[in-house]
Amino acid sequence: MVPRILIVLLVVLLGLAFQAILQPTPPKLWGSPGGPPVTSPRIKLRDGRYLAYREDGAQKDKAKYKIITVHAFDATKDFPLPVSKELVDELGIYLLAFDRAGYGESDPNPKRDVKSEAMDIEELTDQLELGQKFYVLGVSMGGYSIWGCLQYIPNRLAGAALVVPIINYWWPSFPAELSRQAFKRLIVPEQRTLWIAHNIPSLLYLWMTQKWLPSSAAAMQHPEIFSKHDMEVLQKMMAMPVIENKSRQQGIYESIHRDLLVAFGNWEFDPMNITNPFPQNEGSVHIWQGYEDRLVLVELQRYIAKKLPWIHYHEVPEGGHMFMLADGWTDKILRALLVGE
Q1: How far is the C-alpha of 17 from the C-alpha of 333, rounded, in Å?
Q2: How far does the signal peptide extend, from start to end residue (predicted)?
């Protein structure tokens, strides 16, 4: 059996050889000649990019609570938050979803990072006149946008929820042994992908497009990443109306590849050094984590919650990575965020 490190080294050497000739395919911009047609409302950002959005729930001018939701890896704003109409009507909830840069109908951002995602959220809310304060909720990969909001625009937040948020194994505050052991629990293709995204980002495109070895388990929806509860959720979802996934229509590099580069690259800050944005309990921050999650591991999430005791940490004993999509969990998450129940 060839040691894993030799396989990675082989990919690195091949990457160096082909890097000059193998470059990411230019994105197919929405609304451009030959590109997909624009079907969603969009705003034009200060840097000239367009950001697509979707509004749901109560009318904006009558809503008591305004929540910006941030979609997961390989998804878009068109996958609605599974919140009940009864809760929306009871509390008066306005929901604003948007396509993150490079996803769906939002233009790519070659300079995308954790900070730029927070700035996109702030500018979107300002252009739509949502007011000085709003709530944010990010799911899985969308969690790094929420960490960005907590770091860069805490004064704009009324509250925040992170649901199975991604964890960067190279955050400095993690004890090396804890991070190393958790990393080894990932299935091997995911280990390779995240290692390359962090250590040799220029080779990620080659790694993700080569056919010799399996790459990102999340991108390929490898069955080993799903827990028993996740499989039950997927079976229920198969009986629902199909929603066209437009996440990759502008190309895979500016959507899912850049997501990996941002999430697992070097951040400007360590989330575990963030200060409490609500020292007077005028708002709250929540992390929701499934104990059986095979993509985001519970022991690291517990460590983050220990380092940041002002975060309300909720662990779902039998929940996998997709627990939010079943059994009324979205309503429970929103009640905790908005009214403390």
Answers
A1: 49
A2: 1-17
